[in-house]
Write a structure and sequence with these properties.
CATH architecture of the largest domain: 7 Propeller
Oligomer: single chain
Number of domains: 2
Number of helices: 5
Structural class: mainly beta
Helix content: 10-25%
Radius of gyration: 24 Å
Strand order of the largest sheet: 5-6-7-8-9-10-11
CATH class of the largest domain: Mainly Beta
Strand content: over 45%
Length: 400
């Protein structure tokens, strides 16, 4: 495959619609997708797979939908790219976009909803503040640190996270009590990073590295007690993820999450794996006990799947004919760096028919050179200079 063909293939792949957020309303799934040319919200029925775009124009991001309502709240640019927003609402069944919060455009950094309550953190030139709106009445609750980002809301609390202690190595959780107006900050340990708190009554679910690794924890606001999540299955422990890009509560007080390891990800419900194909999961939600994920891999464009082992496709973007075959197969490999670390990498195995004989030696040369350079040590028999490495790469490129 020539350099031109490679560039054209990459350009084609880059033009395939991409989705990066998903949620479940009362009756449908809603996802944030670039299908149609701009990032907007789409609604899909999982049984019929019928779908439609519920919002006109580009959408910056949406609040996580609620399972007891079909209304979705989201932020849209209101200043032609100046990163100032207004907050809108739309029905996942009918669309019908309406202005949800009448405010002077400001930079909305975090957005959540609960019933008729809309809450958000937003910045003006003067300050970052925490706001709520109910039945159209906007109220500024208090000024918060400039890094504070709201992540969830319920009938009593607003929670979020940020670099609140002004320690570059930590992120803390903030808690605002709507009934008393009290504001507090929480961390299980100084210098720890605590992410994306999610509410379930008086309980907060969040990821923290205070034990030395990223794990999910639960903090009870009523008892001020911190505890681990009591998962019913050991699948989670066996997989031992290093990060949790997405997580949340299920209606029966159980927890769902995406676990990430070695550049790939898996879906879990109450600690049990919800089987999905190898690859990465950019989003997950749970509806009626089933996991729905945004899945992609190094060779598979983004699609919305039902994660039950059968991998039922709910939404699949239009992919130009032959592009998947041209890309070939992908696999995860690892190699040892010069300082003894195991490095994971995604590789493509280009089909032999796509590689001309005259280029085979060039590909082999590049592969050998990559391996050679990755194993070089600055103080061993393979000692070399950056200039020598650069000349080696240049030589390989000249063979193209």
């Amino acid at each position: 495959m020539s350099i031109r063909e490679i560039a054209e293939t990459i350009e084609t792949i880059a033009g395939i619609p991409f989705s990066y957020a998903i949620g479940s309303t009362k009756d449908r799934l809603v996802y944030h997708s670039s299908e149609g040319g701009t990032l907007t919200l789409w609604s899909v029925d999982v049984d019929s797979r019928s779908r439609f775009r519920i919002t006109p124009g580009p959408v910056e991001y949406m609040a996580e939908p609620r399972h007891d309502s079909n209304i979705v709240y989201y932020a849209k640019d209101a200043a032609k790219g100046a990163e100032l927003h207004k907050i809108y609402a739309a029905d996942a069944i009918e669309g019908n976009e309406t202005l949800a919060v009448d405010l002077t455009p400001m930079r909305v950094e975090g957005l959540a909803s609960y019933g008729r309550l809309v809450a958000f953190t937003a910045a003006t030139k003067e300050e970052m503040a925490l706001y709520t709106s109910k039945s159209g009445h906007l109220e500024k609750r208090r000024v918060v640190p400039s890094s504070a980002i709201l992540s969830d809301a319920n009938e009593r609390y607003l929670v979020g996270t940020g670099n609140l202690a002004k320690n570059p190595r930590s992120f803390e959780i903030f808690i605002f009590d709507l009934s008393t107006g009290n504001y507090g900050e929480y961390t299980p340990k100084s210098d720890s990073v605590n992410k994306s708190p999610k509410l379930n009554g008086d309980k907060i679910l969040f990821e923290s590295n205070y034990t030395g690794k990223n794990q999910l924890h639960m903090y009870d606001l009523a008892s001020a007690k911190l505890s681990n999540i009591p998962f019913a299955s050991k699948d989670y422990q066996l997989y031992d993820p290093i990060e949790h890009p997405n997580f949340g509560w299920i209606d029966n007080d159980k927890v769902w999450f995406v676990g990430k390891r070695n550049g790939e990800a898996k879906a879990f419900i109450d600690g049990k794996e919800a089987k999905t194909p190898p690859g990465f999961l950019w989003g997950m939600t749970v509806r009626k006990g089933k996991a729905y994920v945004l899945h992609c891999s190094v060779v598979q464009p983004m699609r919305l799947l039902e994660g039950d082992g059968k991998n039922k496709v709910i939404v699949e973007p239009p992919v130009p004919q032959g592009i998947i075959e041209k890309v070939g197969k992908g696999r995860l490999v690892s190699f040892r760096s010069f300082d003894g670390r195991n490095i994971a990498a995604l590789t493509l195995e280009v089909p032999p028919a796509m590689v001309r004989n005259s280029e085979t030696s060039t590909l082999e040369t590049r592969a050998a050179e990559t391996f050679k350079m990755s194993s070089m040590r600055p103080d061993g028999p393979n000692k070399t200079t950056w200039q020598q490495r650069l000349r080696s790469w240049a030589t390989a490129m000249e063979d193209t």
